[in-house]
Design brief:
0% strand
C-alpha cells in the first residue's frame, strides 16, 4: 500500500509540475499559480485519506468498511474545502483553465497509477 501511495504522489507531483511549468512558460505565472492551486486541491486530501489508511494497515489492522468510508468522506470534505479556499484565495486572479488543468492533472495521476499497477 505504501508503494502505491508513493507512486501516486510522485505521478501527481510530476504531472502537476509539468503542467505548471508549461503554463508558466507559455501563458504566464497567473495560470501557473492557478494550476498549482488546483493540483494541491486534489493532492492534499488524497494524501490525508491515503496516509490514514496506510497508518491503519501498518499497525497490523485491516481497515474496516467504516474506516474506508470515513477516510473517503474526509477526502471529499477536504477537496470541497480546498476548492472553496483556492477559489477565494485567487479571487480576481483566478484563471479557470489553469485551475482546471491542475485538478484534472492530479486526478489523472490517480488513474495512471491504477493502470500502471494493473498493466506493468
Amino acid at each position: 500500500m505504501a508503494g502505491l501511495l508513493l507512486t501516486t504522489l510522485v505521478l501527481q507531483v510530476v504531472i502537476a509540475g509539468i503542467a505548471v511549468g508549461a503554463l508558466a512558460l507559455t501563458v504566464g505565472t497567473t495560470y501557473a499559480i492557478a494550476c498549482l492551486t488546483g493540483a494541491l486541491t486534489v493532492v492534499g486530501p488524497f494524501m490525508f485519506a491515503g496516509t490514514t489508511l496506510w497508518l491503519r494497515t501498518s499497525l497490523g489492522r485491516t481497515p474496516s468498511v467504516a474506516a474506508l468510508l470515513v477516510a473517503e468522506a474526509g477526502k471529499l470534505l477536504l477537496t470541497i474545502a480546498g476548492l472553496v479556499v483556492g477559489i477565494r484565495w485567487l479571487g480576481s486572479q483566478m484563471e479557470w483553465p489553469g485551475f482546471l488543468a491542475g485538478l484534472v492533472g492530479a486526478w489523472v495521476a490517480q488513474w495512471l497509477t491504477v493502470w500502471f499497477t494493473r498493466h506493468g
